[in-house]
């Protein structure tokens, strides 16, 4: 066993404590999958990442991403946070303001602007696509949503690495007031192979964000995730595919986490090719060493 560098970060946050915590293990070359999963379970954070040398040509670094219970091919706040950690550690440098992340979902382009706590990093999420369902799911979906007031768009299961149930509620107030039935959500996600359920609602003019979002992953040991990149990318993809993006704009901000004591902000954009980008700021909270 050897000592290795370890960081704990706050992602999608303009100050420590506002966003989504992330554990990052730098130089994980001699850790196997079992050791990584065990450590991710021990941290009990929504995700823990492990930095490795790249394998693919053109990649700036490689990362593996774990929840307490499984490895994910892609996740948003781990991608943003890991890039921040790699830059702080000097393991990679942006070229013309860009990095390339290698993960199980492939090579993902990233943009970098600014420095330090004010640095903003964005990642192009894998293309979110509706996942066909081969099991009867309507009763489980109805139970998970109960009597929630719905918005204009139909619910959809959108796959961008992980698969998310994406549901528009009537407005941001309905999102804020939602009392989740975690057992029903776990039953829905287990039945349909989803990582979680994400609800969103539109915010009236005059706020610093266009959407309020909440994300629930009880079957993965995460009752409510504070600020969720992949879910927001899935939401953006579904809004775009449904033709509803012009009413919101191709660039908008999201508020997530307020209901559990956070106040994260995600910057979302959908480019001319219909690809969803998610970004924001990251704060380094803990620097140390790890024995594992």
Describe the structure.
The protein is an alpha+beta fold. It has seven helices and 17 strands. It has an eight-stranded mixed beta barrel. Helix 3 packs antiparallel against helix 5. The longest helix is centred in the first third of the chain and has 14 residues. The mean pLDDT is 96.
In brief:
This protein has 292 residues and is of the alpha+beta class.
What descriptors fit this protein?
292 residues; alpha+beta
What's the total helix number? Answer: 7
Label the structural class.
Answer: alpha+beta
* Largest beta sheet: strand ordering: 1-2-3-4-6-7-8-17
* Overall 3D shape: globular
Q: What value does the average pLDDT take?
A: 96
The number of strands is 17
* Termini separation: 7 Å
Could you tell me the strand content as a percent range? 35-45%
Poorly predicted segments: none
Q: Main beta sheet, described?
A: 8 strands, mixed, barrel
Listing every helix as H and every strand as E from the N terminus to the C terminus, the arrangement reads: EEHEEEHEEEEHEEHHEEEHHEEE
- The helix content, as a percent range, equals 10-25%
Rg (CA only): 18 Å
What are the SSEs and their pairings?
Layout lengths: L2 E9 L8 E6 L7 H11 L4 E5 L8 E6 L4 E2 L3 H14 L8 E6 L2 E8 L6 E5 L4 E2 L7 H8 L10 E4 L3 E6 L3 H6 L4 H11 L3 E7 L8 E7 L4 E4 L3 H13 L3 H4 L2 E6 L7 E7 L5 E16 L1
Parallel strand pairs: 2-3, 4-6, 11-12, 13-15
Antiparallel strand pairs: 1-2, 1-17, 3-4, 4-5, 6-7, 7-8, 8-17, 9-10, 10-11, 12-13, 13-14, 15-16, 16-17
